[in-house]
Each structure stands twice: as structure tokens, then as C-alpha cells.
UniProtKB/TrEMBL annotation:
Organism: Actinomadura syzygii
UniProt xrefs under CDD domains: ALDH_DhaS (cd07114)
InterPro entries reported in the protein's UniProt record: Ald_DH/histidinol_DH, Ald_DH_C, Ald_DH_CS_CYS, Ald_DH_CS_GLU, Ald_DH_N, Aldehyde_DH_dom
One Pfam family of this chain: Aldedh
Gene3D superfamilies xrefs: Aldehyde Dehydrogenase, Chain A, domain 1 (3.40.605.10), Aldehyde Dehydrogenase, Chain A, domain 2 (3.40.309.10)
Entry protein name: Aldehyde dehydrogenase
Extent of the signal sequence: none
GO molecular function terms attached to this record: oxidoreductase activity, acting on the aldehyde or oxo group of donors, NAD or NADP as acceptor
Amino acid sequence: MNDTDPYRMLIDGKWVDGSTGERFDSLDPYRQKPWASIPQASDSDVDHAVRSARAAFETTWRKTNGGERARLMLRLADLIEAEAPRLARLETTDNGKVIRETTRQMGFAARNYRFLAGQADKLYGQTIPLDNADLFDFTLHEPAGVAALLVAWNSPIQLLTNKLAPALAAGCTVVIKPSEHASVTTLELARLAEEAGYPPGVINVVTGDGRVGAALTAHDDLDLISFTGGQRTGRLVARAAADNLVAVALELGGKSPNIVFADADLDAAIPGALAGIFGAAGQTCIAGSRLLVERPVYEEVLQQLGERTAAIRLGDPLDPDTEMGPVANQLQYDTILDYIAAAKADGARLLTGGGPADDPDLPTGYFVQPTVFADVTGDMKVASEEVFGPVLAVMPFDGEEEAIRIANSTQYGLASGLWTRSLSRAMRVAREIRAGTVWINTYRTNAAQAPFGGYKKSGFGRERGLDSLHDYLRVKNVMADLSEDVGDPFAMRV
Ligand code: TXE
């Protein structure tokens, strides 16, 4: 167990156990041992959290000026930065992501709070000149209200920050529900927010499994729900939002294409392909899990990719030299191995990997070998379904048109990458790809300023960048008649 254990939830400014006293263990996926004890919230805890968020919003928070919101966000960013090594260690222990990645993610989280802090006091409306000069019209950008923020286990702080930073900048209050597989850093971040000076009720955290998510999303006093997770749960969340007519934003992962044209700089494209699928052991929503390679360089790419993949260093995720850690939990481990078996059964050619890691230096942990399948065709499961693990499907193509057709052939549309030395080709293809992100000659590169989100069944709503504020604001139009002329009450005034 660790230094702050057992953890408690934050509701209405108080650190509490669940009202039933029920708890569960969070598992360290490398040591395969329980390492933190987390409370399981009851329906009444969830209700308490939403009511406190509502009370904080209505009584004080929605009137807090943007300068104060910016100040608090900057303070939170400083605290995250100061605590980054510890937060990274905790997150790595909780979900098995390598420390070099979690360390960078903590710095990136701080950057995101700072970027949107800069907007908190610049939520300008517009004055709108109308046809009728007697009318004076302007807009106000007001906070949407109480937001439920639900996130998955693969990057708890980063996924939460994508939602929490715009929510706080806009002036919403929040109830956060982290994944039961990795709740620790969310609770640690809530502690830092408390230290930064956020008033009670503005940030609440309820922990537990899907029952808590279901109770939260079914609550009838929310103004919006923002969810990151799998499609199956995403549908349930959207249904719950529909029942209460609450706004909803969904980020549901992808099956992103990473396209290598024959004129690409392969010295850059091969590491780009590795980054796309083996970064975070493939457990990222933006994983470049389909590598499309133009026929003239297909065999060369396979050969280099196979060699580089076989040399990936697996090990303790807390060791800075480790390149790939274990996958995050037993369920994910089993799911990934099932997908590998299905790819073999479907006739994909196994280039490297293809099963549980058998290295005797890895005595414990949910380790899956980094795996590459070649000659994958569109009808195979591994070409269309999100594996969420270190499994790459490589497919050959002939020419730009076929690359675009294959790239757009799944139900998803979150991210994509393309590698070419031709600027005009890069721009042409970028316009044709139906995805919220297109990377050109890079992959898995993020920026606080750049918006991120899905096309098609990868979801809707945008995170990061200025666009992220839209989900958390409401636009109010205010129109004043300066003429003092009553006019005809039975005809619409224009
Ligand atoms: O996610 P879930 P899981 C994909 C990936 C993975 C699959 C399942 O393919 O294998 O989803 O992962 C909460 N109402 N992604 O099971 O179930 C749950 O407690 C409301 C892609 O971990 O989607 C957790 O907090 N909430 C994804 C959150 O939903 C409910 C990232 C996400 O869990 C709920 C992660 C309910 N009825 C997995 N049931 C991405 N976008 O990249 C559960 N939850």
C-alpha cells in the first residue's frame, strides 16, 4: 500500500468514505498486487456530490470572475508541476504506463490548465448590429452549470484535464468519476485543487465501478456529461443523457490509420509507426493501430518494423529505460490476447510477437508481446475493431485513392497520420480523411492549443484548444429595445 492510502472521496469539500463503507482494491498491474484502497460510492453519495456541485454553482461559483478562476487554475498548474514526479509514479503504479510517458503527461496537464487559465478572463461575448437600429443586442458567454466528468483508466490525469480545464475556465462545477482501474491520481489531483484554493463543492470526486457511473449519468440535476471510454459504455451514457435531456460529449476511441506513402522518409515513418501503436502499450484512444503502406515500400517497411518491434524493451514501468510496460488489467490482457487469436484465425500473417511475453526476466505483470500482423485485409476483426493493446495491423495499398478509401473504412474517426515528402499530397489526403486529427510526418504529438475529438462513431465534442470551451459554456443573447415604441403586439417585431 502507499503513503496516502486508504483513499477517500471528495464531496462538498470533505474527504469521506462511501456511506456504505464498501471499498475495493486498486491493482498494480506490474506486481499484480493490490496497492491502494478506494471507496465505492453509493447512489446517495453520488446524489450528495451532485447536490453540492449544484449548490456551489448557484450560490457562488457561477458569479466568480474570470480573473479569480484564472488565478486558481494557474495555482493548480504550479502544484501539479511541483508534484509531477510523485503523480507520475503513482499513475504508473496504478495503470502500468511507463514512467517516461506519465512524467511527460503531468507536465502536459499543467500546460493545459495554464493555457485555458489564459481564457478564463477572456470569455467575451459580442455586440451584434441588427437591422433595426432601435435594438441593441449583445451576447454573454455563461458557464453551462454542473458537469459530470467520467474518464477511463489509460491516462487518468490527461483525460481528466481535457475536461476539467475547460470546465473550470468556463465556471462550471464538476463531479468527477475516475475509472475503478485507476482512481488514485484523480484523488491526488483533487487534493491539489483543494490546496490551490478551490471552494468546497466546486470539484467533487466519487469513486467506484460502473454502478457509480450509471448513478451519476442518470442524475436529473446535471447540465452536461462528458465521457471518455469505450463505445459500449458510451452508448449507455448517451442514453442516460437523453433520458434527462442533458448535453453530452463523448470520446470513444478509434482504429486510426497511419499511412506511409512510398516517397516517405522511412527513417522518420518507422519510429512514427512504433510510437503510434506501442506507445503506452497501445492503450491510447489515438493508437495508430492500422499501418497502411504503399506497395513499393511494403516489404522494406515490414522488415524494419519487425526488427524494431522485436527489440522493444519490456519491463518495470517505473524504470526509465523501459519502453513498454504491462497492460493495465486482467480484462484488458484477456481481450488483447483474444484479438491476437482472432487475427491468427482470420489468416493475418504474424510478423512478430503474438502472445503473452515469455521473457524470464519478467516474473510478473500483464505483459503482451508487441505484435505486428502483416497482409491484414478489411474483413478481419483486427482491421476494424479497437484492440486497445500493442497489436498492429499492417495493410498494403496502391495509390492515394485506395489509401483514403481504406483509411475511412472503419466506423471510427478519431486520429490519423500520413507520411510523405509531397506537400500537395499531404494536404489533399488530409482533407479527405474523416478524422478529428490528421498528423503529417508525425504521430501522437499533442498540444494544449490544438483541438481534439472524434468524427463518426469516435464521438462528438472537442477537448483541448479554444474549441474545448464550447461544451462548457452557454451563449445568452440579450436584446434591448431603445425606442420606447410599443408597436403592434400581434405581429413579430424585427
Ligand atoms: O471502459 P468503459 P473500460 C475502450 C477499449 C477498452 C474498452 C473497455 O477498447 O477495451 O473501451 O474499457 C464508467 N454508466 N476504451 O471497460 O467501460 C467506468 O467505471 C456510466 C477506449 O475500461 O468505457 C469508467 O469510469 N459510466 C477509451 C468509464 O465508464 C460507466 C479509453 C470508462 O469505462 C458505466 C478506455 C455506466 N453504465 C477504453 N459503466 C478511449 N476513448 O480511448 C462503466 N462506467
